[in-house]
Amino acid sequence: MGRGAKPLAPGLYFLATPIGTARDITLRALDILASADVIAAEDTRTLRHLMEIHGIALNHRPLIAYHDHNGAQVRPRILRALEEGQTVAYASEAGTPLVADPGYQLGRAAIEAGHPVFAAPGPSAVLAALTVSGLPSDRFLFAGFPPNTGSARRKWLKEFAAIPATLVFYESPKRVGDMLRDMVEVFGPDRQGAVCRELTKRFEEVRRDSLGDLAEQFSGDAPKGEIVVLVDRLRGSQAGPEDIEAALRERLDRMSVKDAAAEVSEALGLPRRDVYQAALKLDREE
């Protein structure tokens, strides 16, 4: 146990760590890092540096690398520590574990073995980007990283076209220009979006514009740094027959014609009567 730290209840603790600014770590996360019997990390060098910045000594405690490539080999060691009643802290390289970062399989294994699992919430690029984007935050969908190739990416993006929520994506700076061009093709050039780069860091940048203009802005050299791309929900004036049909079909599988029409009408800002007639037609065709 770290000097001056309070004992922790046995279990697995997922820690959110800064996405850029080291002081964004929470006091609770520091307490857990100081107290845990075993510390695991996606990148041990990054976590050790963060601990040094905040004056937390390792004090001969195990510091275990755990990531997507070695998970199957390392999970048994962590589970043994939990079985022995030890406290285990796990941190991804930056941000919140399990959110486009390792941790899901570890969490599932701990839960299935009957061990307590705790979250020490904190920094997340998803929430930081949503906060500064200027786009609606009442409902959002985090979609993670898109496929690397153009054809697969466009097919994948179509799945989100009619979802009535702000869409949040991660993307490599090398591919963000291609992704935005595909978004223009799939979502249309007038949908509003935002591209957030290097959030919380020295060269933080947020560009808010239509997808068409954003695609043009990122058509040149690839930018540097971590990228989050956000897209506004489909609006009534932008919704074509295919968009309305896709939104209705998704809902008709799980709700009545009346409820599906009401939800799509509200989500897309369209007259309820028109959407209800379209829903009736689709229901008859089924």
From TrEMBL:
Question: Could you tell me which NCBIfam families the record lists for this protein?
Answer: 16S rRNA (cytidine(1402)-2'-O)-methyltransferase
Q: Name one Pfam family in it.
A: RsmI_C
Alphabetical GO biological process terms: methylation
- RsmI HTH domain: from which residue to which, for each copy? 239-282
* InterPro entries for the chain: 4pyrrol_Mease, 4pyrrol_Methylase_sf, 4pyrrole_Mease_sub1, 4pyrrole_Mease_sub2, rRNA_ssu_MeTfrase_I, RsmI_HTH
Job description of the protein:
Catalyzes the 2'-O-methylation of the ribose of cytidine 1402 (C1402) in 16S rRNA.
Signal peptide annotation = none
**What family does the Swiss-Prot or TrEMBL record give for this protein?**
Belongs to the methyltransferase superfamily. RsmI family.
Q: Does the keyword Methyltransferase apply?
A: yes
* GO terms assigned for molecular function: methyltransferase activity
Main site of residence?
Answer: cytoplasm
Question: Which Gene3D superfamilies does UniProt cross-reference here?
Answer: Cobalt-precorrin-4 Transmethylase, Domain 1 (3.40.1010.10), Methyltransferase, Cobalt-precorrin-4 Transmethylase, Domain 2 (3.30.950.10)
Which keywords appear in this protein's UniProt record, sorted alphabetically? Cytoplasm, Methyltransferase, rRNA processing, S-adenosyl-L-methionine, Transferase
Q: Which reaction does it catalyse?
A: cytidine(1402) in 16S rRNA + S-adenosyl-L-methionine = 2'-O-methylcytidine(1402) in 16S rRNA + S-adenosyl-L-homocysteine + H(+)
Q: Which gene encodes it?
A: rsmI
CDD domains, alphabetized:
RsmI
Domain Tetrapyrrole methylase, residue spans:
12-215
Broadest EC class?
A: transferase
Is Transferase a UniProt keyword of this protein?
Answer: yes
Against HAMAP family, the record matches this protein to: 16SrRNA_methyltr_I (MF_01877)
Annotated protein name in UniProt: Ribosomal RNA small subunit methyltransferase I
Q: Where in the cell is it found?
A: Cytoplasm
Q: What is its EC number?
A: 2.1.1.198
